[in-house]
Amino acid sequence: MIHALTAKNKIGFINGSIEQPSKKDQPTEYALWNQCKRMILSWLTHSVEPDLAKGVIHAKTAYQVWEDFKDQFSQKNAPAIYQIQKSLASFSQGTMTVSTYFTKLKGLWDELDTYRALPTCNQMKAHDEQREEDRLMQFLMGLHDTYNIVRTNILMMSPLPNVRQAYSLVIQEETQRQMTPESTENFSIAAEIQRRGNNFSNKSKDKHCEHCNREGHTIESCRTLKFHCKYCDRKGHTEDRCKFKNGIWVSNNTGGQGNRHNTSQQRQRGSQGNAFNSFHVANTTDSSQSTHGVHSQDTNSSPGLSTDQLQQLAHALSMMTQNQKSPGNSDAYANAA
Which end of the chain is less packed: N or C, by CB atoms within 10 Å? Predict the structure, then answer.
């Protein structure tokens, strides 16, 4: 409003510098003054909410309306500065473009300057330099993390550029990224994955399970307490995911939870793995008959096995006969190339 009134040379009507002429002695001047006064009153009442306009609709001069609005809406310097500084402290680019981010940031700076008193003339240069450096740091701190490289390059410059020069450099970087959107998107995705990975790693380090003595989870989410397999009598999984039932070879210890089959099963898998690494489980009802059958087979009946392999198979089946004690472990082995 002040800019509009100043441009039309009407600012004196609201600050009181243009006085009302005498209606009797200066009728022409009074008519012009009254015309301008009513026009300004119309501007002021239409620039506020209708409820506020009702309170000043009967004012005689624009000066009275202006003073009334000033008393209602003017703030002291301290609360206004506090609000601006608070906005600056939490202001960042986020999803805005660099241009939008800088424009809004500059608006806060300019608003803050209206509440600050200018220093004396001999300190003006030092004041301006300090203000430019503060604004440069504020601008760089609010940039998105994808601009880390250009931010580092700006901070390494000597002397430091002013905030407008830094803004120009960041705009150039943004323009180059818009020309290659795919690489920028990949960079952003990689940065987000790294950030989430770091968060997950930090969270995992803070968790410890007292039941299984492992890191990465708590006792409330421990799988060994939640799941139990009736087939192998082990904890940590269910029967539909049991690797022993599905025929999938398992060589790792499942966490050391004690049960009555662990020791014998580990010995069997160890002896089987040492004897041969490429044989799979098959149905065999009599291990002694299988052993005799292997000895009696000739090379033509098993074209994929050599004599040494047949001997190793026979030895493995003999070991199985000695070690198999429980019905749940009556797995036999068939030939496989």
Answer: C
